[in-house]
Design goal:
Blueprint: H1 2-15, E1 18-22, E2 27-31, E3 42-47, E4 52-64, E5 67-74, E6 79-85
Length: about 100
């Protein structure tokens, strides 16, 4: 019974899209579901300010209580961006 519960939680976590905010650009963002978000990975986000998808590389992930800060490099704008994700504690290795 316990292995089934653990598998269910793992798959539920992977299917979850994470919402966040870019304070520097005043933009709501969303990490699309089904992606492995970890340091060094390239993932797709949706930037609500420009209404478009962006491909970014995850530079760092830091947890602060229930908030998570994700620094990325945005290939479209050639800028580093920092997102704050609330109520989302991500493990640096397994996120």
């Amino acid at each position: 019974m316990k292995p089934l519960a653990i598998l269910t939680l793992l798959f539920a976590a992977q299917a979850h899209a994470w919402d966040g905010y870019d304070w520097d650009n005043h933009a709501d963002i969303e990490f699309e579901s089904g992606q492995t978000v970890r340091e060094g990975s390239t993932v797709e986000i949706f930037d609500y300010k420009v209404g478009a998808y962006r491909e970014v590389q995850v530079e760092s992930i830091d947890n602060y209580g229930l908030n998570t800060e994700v620094e990325v490099y945005d290939y479209t704008t050639c800028e580093y961006r920092t997102f704050e994700l609330e109520d989302c504690v991500m493990d640096k290795q397994a996120a």
